[in-house]
């Protein structure tokens, strides 16, 4: 069974083709700058060199047409025709309360995703564009929607409700939803396997750390708490997102600076976080280089990020009444050894002991703990595409 995984953004389209008999990746690629000057496709077929080809993509449909050409013809082909694609799995950011699991896409499902567009105006419309384009180009191929929010629908009410008038929940769905659920699901399951414990009996804290970052408490295989909220803005300090702030700051700045709601939203999402604290950039790699070089602003920014992260880890250990393992994933979590070591050294009270030599690595699956550590610290590169492909296979085999 071959599954095409599609992740549609507003101006990009990421894709993978997976052979689900052995879960191998046959091809992977991305179409960038769709609808913008300078668009291109970057494609890698298993066992071959990566190719980057300038292409004029005005629409996502045109990008998908080029992708189909790349995976079915010439030296970049991984299948002989589109008929060898048995299913398409779509990453959908927001499913609201309507979806607690992945689903086969129907007209009713598309309508429900549309109804969630108010909750994710930057993401769901692009996701829908990808679905419709695929349906037009591959009308006979079954498709599955996999939601970032679905994994967190197991949170108890006391975790997801905000202490504001309940009418806003009933009228507008204002509550905590959480995101990165596909990643948290994969990493927590893999972490349980690494420590030799059934996920149904494990307490795992997953730290998905990248330009967007979130922490999730996974107890007995289910999400019971997570740091992102009604939107992906809440929680940790991120690349350009503020994370948690006192909500009274918003009306204060609107009055003092004459800012509109849209300007406040832009400031919190695109001008805050690491970018604001460092006053030099949002790339964690530059912050890491600055820490090594002794730059004071980089050191402060890293400290502020870690302070918030430690606060969440400690809180989630308390919520679950203990923790078996803390797993790091995402671009920052997988590649920043300095951050992992410093975080570990602030968690010795919890039973974390990091092996400094084991920690000298990037992007590889590894137990970073000393032999006697009571709580394991793990590096688990995430694989959201595999989760999407597995769900497509599971649902279609039903």
Characterise this structure.
Substrate binds at residue 91. Pathway: Metabolic intermediate biosynthesis; acetyl-CoA biosynthesis; acetyl-CoA from acetate: step 1/2. GO terms for molecular function: acetate kinase activity; ATP binding; magnesium ion binding. It holds the Pfam family Acetate_kinase. The record marks 180, 241 as: Transition state stabilizer. The protein is α/β, with parallel strands linked by helices. Helix content is 37%, strand content 19%. The protein has helices spanning 60-72, 107-115, 124-137, 157-160, 167-172, 181-194, 249-257, 261-270, 273-278, 284-293, 296-319, 330-335, 337-345, 384-397; strands at residues 2-8, 13-19, 24-32, 40-45, 51-54, 87-92, 103-104, 143-147, 203-208, 214-219, 222-226, 325-329, 366-367, 376-379. Strands 5-4-3-2-1-6-8-7 form an eight-stranded mixed beta sheet, sandwiched between helices. A hairpin with a 7-residue loop joins β3 and β4. α6 (181-194) packs across α14 (384-397) and α10 crosses α11. It is globular and about 55 Å long.
Q: Which strand order do you get reading across the main beta sheet?
A: 5-4-3-2-1-6-8-7
Termini separation comes to: 14 Å
The DSSP helix count reads: 14
Helical content (DSSP H or I, runs of 4+): 25-40%
- By oligomeric state, this entry counts as single chain
**What overall geometry do the principal axes of the alpha carbons give?**
globular
SSE succession: EEEEEHEEHHEHHHEEEHHHHHEHHEEH
Structural class: alpha/beta
Q: Determine the strand fraction and express it as a percent band.
A: 15-25%
**Unreliable stretches:** none
Average pLDDT level: 96
Largest sheet: 8 strands, mixed
Radius of gyration: 21 Å
């Amino acid at each position: 069974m071959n599954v095409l995984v599609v992740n549609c953004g507003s101006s990009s389209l990421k894709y993978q083709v997976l052979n689900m008999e052995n879960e191998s990746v046959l091809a992977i690629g991305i179409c960038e700058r769709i609808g913008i000057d300078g668009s291109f496709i970057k494609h890698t077929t298993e066992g071959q060199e990566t190719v980057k080809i300038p292409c004029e993509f005005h629409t996502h449909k045109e990008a998908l047409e080029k992708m189909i050409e790349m995976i079915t013809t010439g030296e970049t082909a991984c299948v002989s025709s589109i008929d060898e694609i048995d299913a398409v799995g779509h990453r959908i950011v927001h499913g609201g309360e309507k979806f607690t699991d992945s689903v086969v896409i129907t007209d009713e499902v598309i309508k429900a995703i549309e109804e969630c567009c108010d909750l994710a105006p930057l993401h769901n419309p692009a996701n829908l564009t990808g679905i419709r384009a695929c349906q037009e180009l591959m009308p006979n191929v079954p498709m599955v929607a996999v939601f970032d929010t679905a994994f967190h629908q197991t949170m108890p009410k006391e975790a997801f409700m905000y202490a504001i008038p309940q009418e806003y929940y009933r009228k507008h769905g204002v509550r905590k939803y959480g995101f990165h659920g596909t990643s948290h699901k994969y990493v927590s399951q893999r972490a349980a396997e690494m420590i030799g414990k059934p996920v149904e009996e494990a307490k795992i804290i997953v730290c998905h750390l990248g330009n967007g970052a979130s922490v999730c408490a996974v107890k007995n295989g289910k999400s019971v708490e997570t740091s992102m909220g009604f939107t992906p803005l809440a929680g940790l300090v991120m690349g350009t997102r503020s994370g948690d702030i006192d909500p009274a700051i918003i009306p204060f700045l609107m009055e003092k600076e004459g800012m509109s709601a849209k300007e406040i939203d832009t400031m919190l999402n695109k001008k805050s976080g690491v970018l604001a604290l460092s006053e030099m950039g949002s790339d964690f790699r530059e912050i890491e280089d600055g820490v090594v070089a002794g730059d004071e602003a980089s050191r402060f920014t890293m400290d502020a990020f870690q302070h918030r992260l430690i606060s969440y880890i400690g809180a989630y250990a308390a919520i679950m009444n203990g923790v078996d393992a803390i797993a790091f994933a995402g671009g920052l979590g997988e590649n920043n050894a300095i951050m992992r070591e410093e975080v570990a050294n602030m968690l010795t009270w919890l039973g974390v002991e990091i092996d400094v030599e084991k920690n000298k690595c990037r992007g590889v699956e590894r137990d970073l703990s000393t032999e006697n550590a009571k709580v394991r610290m793990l590096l688990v590169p995430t694989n959201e595409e595999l989760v999407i492909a597995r769900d497509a296979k599971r649902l279609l085999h039903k």
